[in-house]
Amino acid sequence: MYSVQPMCDRLCSGAVPGSGLIRKAALPALALLSACAVPVEPNVTVRHIESTESAGNGARWHLFLFDPSAPRDLDTRIALARDSVRGNPTCRWVGASKDEIATQTIAQGARYSDTVLAAPLICEG
Fold first, then answer.
1. How far is residue 93's CA from residue 78's CA, in Å, rounded to a whole number?
2. Average model confidence (pLDDT) for the chain?
3. Residue 64 CB contacts under 8 Å (≥ 6 apart), including other chains
4. Which of 74, 75, 83, 101 has the fewest CB atoms within 10 Å, counting from its CB?
5. Containing H/E element for 116?
6. What dihedral angle (degrees, nearest 10) is formed by the CA atoms of 77, 79, 84, 85?
7. 58 — alpha (psi -120 to 50), left (phi > 0) or beta?
8. How does pLDDT run across 53-98, given as a tens digit for each residue?
């Protein structure tokens, strides 16, 4: 998960010139933005495998697998999958609407709909 805390600590400590103005303007905005974000669960193992189905423009649909004992809503699974991809220098997330992701995920079967996610990626190598 990406954290704004190091940046906030630096700004609040005065280590950045002019940070007083930044602190007064930015911190309330950061608080509002963080309230909208889906928190990424720490220590969650996420695996993904490439499917045979093309997502267009060189991308393929990948199936992200999550712990089946902990069903998660779609927004949480997307956040976990995106975080997983950020940590993989050979893959990148390809734009797809939430509806497209939901449709591809549901196509994997109702039994697995809370524990998998289908998302388009381009992976090198």
1. 11
2. 73
3. 46, 47, 48, 77, 80, 81, 84, 116, 117, 118, 119
4. 75
5. strand 116-123
6. 110
7. left
8. 899 889 999 999 988 888 899 999 999 999 999 988 999 999 889 9
Structure tokens at 58: 């060189």
Residue 33 CB neighbour total at 10 angstroms: 11
DSSP calls for 15-43 = -STTHHHHHHHHHHHHHHHHHHSPPPPTT
Q: Are 62 and 50 in contact (CB under 8 A)?
A: yes
89-122 in b/e form (b: 16+ CB < 10 A) is eebebbebeeeebbebbeebeeebbbbbbbbbbe
Tell me the pLDDT band of 22, cut-offs 50, 70 and 90: very low
Q: Six-digit token pair at 59? A: 């991308």
Per-residue confidence band for 36, with pLDDT thresholds at 50, 70 and 90: very low
Q: What is the pTM of this model?
A: 0.62
Question: Strands 116-123, 59-65: parallel, antiparallel or unpaired by DSSP?
Answer: antiparallel
